[in-house]
Amino acid sequence: MSKSQNKEFELLGVNHLALVCRDMKKTVEFYRDILGMPLIKTIDLPRGMGQHFFFDVGNGDALAFFWFPDAPEAQPGIAAPEALPTRGSFVSAHGSMNHIAFNVAADKFDEYYDRLVAKGIDVTPPLNHDNSPTGSTPDPNDEDVYVRSVYFFDPDGICLEFAAWTRELDESDVRHEPKSVESVPA
């Protein structure tokens, strides 16, 4: 990962990302019991509004879930991708949360992939992201590979990723001009 630093604010990472689940019991079973994330805080919201639970994802960061008894149903393809990468449309709406990538050690990536499969989780094949026109290569040892990824859904269709940086990022990795909505043909 890059050694660039924020010169405006000394951010210490992500405190938590809060998502919404349909069934808190199934969410706890998935994140705590299958993925092994410790449940570190539980809250019953006032006036029967629901619940708010926090899981430790390492490095002092947390993943939180709200459960609201009257929340609208999920909208795949709008609020989240309708398919995993390599399996269909990975597009989601502006302002949506597309996916969460959990950082894993490169030397543990293959072991963790096998462990997900052994736990019965439907995962994509590993993707070895590189700078080629296709964005990936079948060879995980290619010197251009900068991150390895595997994608899967949680019980609510939230797209998750295990991602392992494979090399240090540097100035040469920032090479594209940002697009503007005005630059896209109507």
From TrEMBL:
Gene3D superfamilies: 2,3-Dihydroxybiphenyl 1,2-Dioxygenase, domain 1
Listed name of the protein: Catechol 2,3-dioxygenase-like lactoylglutathione lyase family enzyme
Coiled-coil portions: none
Keywords: Dioxygenase, Lyase, Oxidoreductase
InterPro entries given in the database record: Glyas_Bleomycin-R_OHBP_Dase, Glyas_Fos-R_dOase_dom, GlyoxalaseI/FosfomycinResist, VOC_core
Organism: Parasphingopyxis lamellibrachiae
Leader peptide range in chain numbering: none
Tagged with keyword Protein transport: no
Superkingdom per UniProt: Bacteria
Molecular function GO labels: dioxygenase activity; lyase activity
Entry-linked Pfam families: Glyoxalase
Residue span, VOC domain: 13-165
